[in-house]
Description:
The chain is mostly helical. The radius of gyration is 22 Å and the shape is elongated. Residues 5-15 have low confidence and may be disordered. It has a 3-stranded antiparallel sheet with strand order 1-3-2. Strand 2 (88-93) and strand 3 (96-101) form a beta hairpin. Helices cover 53% and strands 12% of the residues.
Amino acid sequence: MREDSVTRRSPELIGCCQPLGAVALSDEDAEATAALFHALADPARVKVVNLLATRTEPVCACEFEPALRLSQPTVSHHLKKLTEAGLLEREQRGKWAYFSLNPQASSQLERLVRIPEVVR
């Protein structure tokens, strides 16, 4: 049986690349990261994260309503989803809740989406 040139070259081509199975993401890390992406699967939630990323201090929940042009119950729903997913930290100050990004969650997302430059 004759072996064609593609078959003979395959080991050389594959040999230079790491197999997909070599990625160091554990099952637990993959599930936790998927939960973060699931929480971000709404444009309003992406805007909340973006707004918080530009602030150095926690933001009062009351500030999101005009910024997002959404009703207070809808804003509360989105903030709750992001907090439950671990993306936000919530601090109660009197009757108002203040929100900030959870540094560990944002670092996890940043590491995951940082794609090294492709060498051509």
